[in-house]
Amino acid sequence: MAMATEVTELMQTPLHDLHLELGARMVPFAGYTMPVQYQNGILAEHLHTRSKAGLFDVSHMGQLVLVGPDHETTAHALEALTPSSFVDLPRGRQRYSVLLNREGGVIDDLMVTRPETDAEDGRLYLVVNAARKEVDIAHFRKNLQDAVKLEVIEDRALIAVQGPEAVNAVAAHAPQAADLAFMSACSTQFDGIDCHVGRAGYTGEDGVELSVPAGAAEPIARALLADERIDAVGLGARDSLRLEAGLCLYGHDLDETTSPVEASIIFCMQKRRLEEGGFPGADRIQRELKNGPGRVRIGVRLNGGVPARNGAEIAQPDGPVIGTVTSGGFCPVVGAPVAMGYVPAGFAKTGTGLELIVRNRRLPATVSDMPFVSNRYYRKSNP
């Protein structure tokens, strides 16, 4: 009975009833009840996304807006909390970034979009992780400059459509989606419904994310799922897809002790910011860039055997433990278990032999380049 009470207290996304109709197995996740898989199962959902397109309900994630008097003011306010450059972010473009604490650890990773119109000058649209949403909101409210305010968007859903057929399928309802370059965004209409579309995602595939009015989420999702190219995909396949793509998951591969240098996401830090500093943890990050970090995130392929999950130990062959797995699982396209984790920098070279300790057994493994499966992001440039 206690479990039933716990479940009823979980929040629901605007697509909750549709998930149940589609036969989803629902699980608690970040305070929400979310679909972990549908009737076809995680493996089929994963492979369908890689070959055609998958629809993901990501409405549990936080949608926020920073609002200032002009772009430069708002951009500088966000730069004070991150190591990324936003002053030079063009209209209609997106940038991946991280919120940092004073020690240079990652509070959260997030996507930042500058709207494309003059009317929205001074606004930056953010998408943050569901499990860190309240932490991020409190951090912004405590640390933002007075001239910039935080708005929390409560009345919108977020739908991701990912895979090689994703953009063509979405463009049948929102033609402007086909014209977007990778990491660009626009406001448009989906069958006459106002929405925001960004060409990005969390699978390594081409695709888009649509921010839509909560009340329109179900008809939009139904319209997309009526396309034979698109299947509904749950959290299970979302995780295996991002693992194959070598992408970090907050709370596993990123946390408040881990720096962007250790995590091998230095692409989120632009040259100007690294030279100027002036962001939280700048001394540590500049030192790690100069001298190398003490530990680094690596990819690992297991030579058969069972998957190594979060928390499994990484050891030298027949030797001492040197690190920890932060993400792991079976990856269908790879056809074998893979993992990510942290080890001293001296053990991070591709091809280095290691052992992962799973259920008291030492399983042979090899340091691998990431992504494990080649990313297929759309590379057209803006005109």
Automatic annotation (TrEMBL):
Enzyme class per UniProt: transferase
Binding, substrate: 209
Pfam families referenced in this protein's UniProt entry, alphabetically: GCV_T (PF01571), GCV_T_C (PF08669)
Catalytic activity entry: N(6)-[(R)-S(8)-aminomethyldihydrolipoyl]-L-lysyl-[protein] + (6S)-5,6,7,8-tetrahydrofolate = N(6)-[(R)-dihydrolipoyl]-L-lysyl-[protein] + (6R)-5,10-methylene-5,6,7,8-tetrahydrofolate + NH4(+)
Keywords assigned: Aminotransferase, Methyltransferase, Transferase
One GO molecular-function entry: aminomethyltransferase activity
Limits of the Aminomethyltransferase C-terminal domain: 295-373
Cellular component terms (Gene Ontology): glycine cleavage complex
Keyword Methyltransferase attributed: yes
Domain of life: Bacteria
Domain GCVT N-terminal: 15-271
Family the entry assigns: Belongs to the GcvT family.
Protein's UniProt name: aminomethyltransferase
Gene name linked to the record: gcvT_7
